[in-house]
């Protein structure tokens, strides 16, 4: 049995608790024992990316302390996992073994069929940090393809950035919006009912745009899809 | 190197985004070249090793730049050329001005370095007209415009616009067929090649041990410039030197595939000093610093000096694709511009330059394609930190410090979550469509998420804690 610590990420903890609950349910179903160290807060990515290095160094240090005792840390976010794995060492903080959820499932647990059931038409957006910093590649798609009932449709220009970029979305709001508009057009072109990704931050951005359009496409984090079963199906809640 | 009076990036971008013609021209051009580059690169099974070789050679050069430059100077001199050193734009322009002598017109083969120092303007002030001979450069020059791309400075123009620019400048073209347009330019340029006595060029590389200078171009006009006139003046950034001919081989593979998606560059010209009775009889090499040694002193930022100006990072950049090159307010646009311009400007009070490192979503597409593996996102965040440090205390830094203070304690963090969930009262049918303060920029185009009734940690504490 793998003992894992869940790093929920500040965004998911605060705004999308369903995703974190789904991650726990999924990992336990696959035989892991999951802990959620309550000392955790934020990996420091927002500070680092906006130019506040001193604060980022402090937060990286505190992250490493909180998670020091665990064999593996799992985060339902490609960009936070990349922050911990790639950037923390550059800030002088040692790395506990940290994985993005799909990496953990496929590489560590060695599963692609997780017993999920999700009877919806779904399209997948590979978020930039999952794709380029972590290199998760086909793993999320392999997981999705194994979900019973799920109709996976390809997203055109999938690898293009959605325009979120953290504080970029505010500092360069017009450019961010132009990028978002193209991403939404591609999502709508697929005819999918559900847009999924491994990062709630990008889903918050694209989903916020789709909601403004009253487009009727629902953003759902990958963890929630993989946690969904016939007995306990996914239900729309916080979004 | 930045254009005087250019607005900060977000403001320039807003104006550019409103220009739908520009966006269409750019999208068409970048989408095509992106696909072709990927194909050209996929053909080489050892692309990753080539990239690493390119990176290693450039790093080696940067670590021993003084040695290689002295070698280069000795070799050029040995072969009958003259080397001039210029600390900044003013010095370089003065040197070139003197070398031009009493010529009234000079031909130029495209050179970003001369654009960086504003050479054409400096020459014009001295009564010398510089004729750009690269087709795209010529379009920019005749249109009294600014370049918007490293390789294709007129990428933002379509055929109809180009014909119009030609007509206004007195170059008649019967239609806007690219061949007809090129023919009109050719006739115009041929007269210049045959009448000009002085040529000015840039350089892609210079080989230290032989003193050879290399220019890559795809129209052949450069070759005319480099062989016909009697006097040749080359202006080159000091980081362009490579140790040996063998090193050149790596770049002659990396550069064409990255920039034009060609397997081999159409016109690669190499010249070494002067050859009596053949080609230019006088050769001057101006070695330009202009902020480069200052950049070299920064261990995190200096990797930007590896750049071979292939423009691959521009063509994949989602920000560049929408805002165009002129929004960057500099001769160096796109991702490389966002990291090289602020370093060369090296002035923390320059607000325009300070806005450039933030002109990126950090998506990483630029790093992925860069043939010399410049980690552009890494340099961007490094430069952002410099900007923040120079700016001192302001509303943003206070907010960031407050957030860090909250994140430093789980107890304060949980309390802030409770406070945040008050925003639920602002929501209408499950949507937050208008936020105050900095949130307003978010809700201008996106609904904001409604904070959860119960944060995850609350749930964990109650059910599992
Ligand atoms: S930074 Fe890299 S990709 Fe961009 S122009 Fe320079 S060499 Fe090319």
Q: What does this protein look like?
A:
The complex is a heterodimer of chains A (239) and B (465). Chain A has 239 residues and is of the alpha/beta class. Chain A folds into two domains: 3-108, Rossmann fold (3-Layer(aba) Sandwich), CATH 3.40.50; 121-227, Rossmann fold (3-Layer(aba) Sandwich), CATH 3.40.50. Chain A is built from twelve helices and eight strands. Chain A has helices at residues 10-15, 17-29, 45-50, 53-66, 78-87, 101-108, 128-134, 139-145, 168-171, 173-190, 200-212, 222-227; strands at 3-6, 33-35, 72-75, 98-100, 121-124, 151-153, 194-197, 218-221. In chain A, strands 2-1-3-4 form a four-stranded parallel β-sheet, with helices on both faces. In chain A, strands 6-5-7-8 form a four-stranded parallel β-sheet, with helices on both faces. In chain A, helix 10 (173-190) packs across helix 11. In chain B, a hairpin with a 4-residue loop joins strand 5 and strand 6 (212-217). Chain B has helices spanning 9-17, 20-42, 47-63, 65-78, 89-100, 112-116, 119-125, 135-142, 159-168, 178-195, 221-227, 245-259, 292-296, 312-316, 318-323, 334-345, 351-355, 365-369, 376-391, 395-407, 410-420, 439-443, 456-463; strands spanning 82-86, 105-108, 129-132, 198-201, 205-207, 212-217, 231-237, 241-242, 267-272, 282-288. Chain B is an alpha/beta fold and 465 residues long. Helix content of chain B is 51%, strand content 10%. Chain B contains 23 helices and ten strands. The chains are: A alpha/beta (239), B alpha/beta (465). The interface between A and B is large, with 65 and 65 residues. Bound molecules: iron/sulfur cluster (SF4). Chain A: Pfam families: CCG. Chain A: This is L-lactate dehydrogenase complex protein LldE. Chain A: InterPro entries: Cys_rich_dom (IPR004017). Chain A: One of its GO terms (molecular function) is oxidoreductase activity. Chain A: Residues 4-84, 122-206 form the Cysteine-rich domain.
